Amino acid sequence: RRYSQPLCLAILDLDGFKAFNDTHGHQAGDELLRRCATTWQGLIRVDDHIARYGGDEFVVTLPHTELAQATDVIERLRQAVPAETRCSAGIAVWDGEEPIGRLLERADRALYLAKGEGSGRVRSELSE
Q1: How far is CA 56 from CA 2, 14, 88, 110, 116, in A?
Q2: How far lies 21's CA from each of 27, 29, 69, 74, in Å?
Q3: 3-class SS at 14?
Q4: Are 78 and 22 in contact (CB under 8 A)?
Q5: SS3 46
Q6: How far apart are CA 89 and CA 115, in angstroms?
Q7: How far apart are CA 29 and CA 75, in angstroms?
Q8: Computed from CA positions of residues 3, 66, 11, 90, in that sequence, does the dihedral angle turn out positive or negative?
Q9: What does the mean pLDDT of the chain come to?
């Protein structure tokens, strides 16, 4: 808001993570989460941030980023997951006014749409 610049927020979800954990065990699942986070951290800019949101979900904030650029970044992250898994993502563009909770809800709704279309998808939701 201070710089009147765009901001995109994405939620990434590892598809089939529960099945991975059930098959390979929780230690392997934890290692997969660490590998994804480490790989993704190396693919984003210094001003971007990635954090585990819960379970197998991660939130990525992309300041000074329009939707087209954010989609490219998230696609790059999605393509970088280890071969044994896939990733889906939802992206929301901040409208400059809405509270963070609403922005997260919209990104989560976009993720839900992506997962509903199958694994390995990225969908976005603009502000209403």
Answers
A1: 32, 6, 11, 16, 17
A2: 8, 5, 33, 24
A3: strand
A4: no
A5: coil
A6: 8
A7: 22
A8: positive
A9: 92
Amino acid (1-letter code) at residue 34: R
Closest CA to 7 of 50, 49, 66, 59: 66
- pLDDT: which is higher, 3 or 120: 120
pTM of the model: 0.92
What pLDDT, in 10s, does the model give residues 76-104?
999 999 887 899 999 999 988 899 999 99
Which are the catalytic amino acids? 56
- Provide the 3-class DSSP secondary structure of residue 90: strand
For residue 37, the surrounding DSSP H or E stretch is helix 26-41
- Reading the block at residue 53, the tokens are 């949101």
Which tokens hold the place of 117? 């279309």
Sequence-distant (≥ 6) Cβ neighbours of residue 98 within 8 angstroms: 127
